[in-house]
Amino acid sequence: MATITAADVNKLRQTTGAGMMDCKKALVEAEGDFDKAIQILREKGQKVAANRSDRESSEGAAVAFINADKTKGAVITLNCETDFVGKNESFVSLAKQLVEKAINFASKEEFLASSFDANMTVAEKLIEQTGVIGEKIEIGGFEILEGAFVGSYVHVNKIAALTAISSAIADAEVLTKDISMQVASMGADTLSYKDFDPAFVASELAARIAIIEKENEEAKRLGKTLKNVPKYISFSQLTEEVLKQAEEDAKAELKAEGKPEQIWDKIIPGKIQRFISDNTTLDQEKALLDQNFIKDDSKKVSDYVKGFNVEITGFKRVTLG
User: Fold this and answer.
1) Collapsing DSSP states into helix, strand and coil, what is residue 42?
2) Given this model, what pLDDT does residue 54 score?
3) 8 Å CB contact between 39 and 135
4) Alpha carbon of 147 to those of 28, 122, 158, 211: distances in Å?
5) How large is the average pLDDT for residues 219-245?
6) Confidence class of residue 181 from pLDDT cuts 50, 70 and 90?
7) Nearest in space to 133 (alpha carbons), one of 242, 226, 57
């Protein structure tokens, strides 16, 4: 029988991340053969992974990495089953190791097939760690972004976001962090309402009307206040004719209220702004530049960005759950 020393066990532990007892058992089974012990631990991971393949892995760590010249970034989520494991220092450290490697690949598939170290691929490392930790471990979100300047923001290791801008200005770090924070907090599917397909807007409007009408049926039955059924949900629908009619409606309302005409010019702009806000809910939910800025909701994201004389050229977001 081979003599297994504490140094042998520690070396295997440092290489694999497995627990001391698991490393010792693997070395004993392998009769001191280091490479064979690694394979034993890997096979254990494969068995655990197979047994836990149908488990939900909605906890973990979201992390970001930006290259040295700030022109490329990566965000990933390393998913596990429990919040306890997701907050573990060694688990978060592994996630950070992985995202630094991820930046070199265009897709999650390429990344998983790449080498983690001389002994295994990234996919094999995840299987190994599944055996070590005893929970399903996998890469969930995976996004890469390039630009003239790329910045990031990570929210309590749960959401990570990237933002690219058109020029590496003096305040690029501040701007990209703020916009990444906006993306992390509010989410968005596209940059501007101008990117929406008219068919998509029409479909969203029909779906929202159907939901509100159903809710109103119940509200009416219970004697509650009915919700307003929208006619528009995006600025792309607010034609000159629609806005002109809104202005005429505002004037008629002021006249009915007995407000003197000489003060209408001071009131109507606010009413039109409220009309626009009430009828652009899709933009506010899904178009980044058209959202209210989270650090100052008196302005749109587009207004904030305008002050820097650059353009947002892209953004990415990954989240757990």
Assistant:
1) helix
2) 66
3) no
4) 52, 26, 24, 40
5) 95
6) very high
7) 57
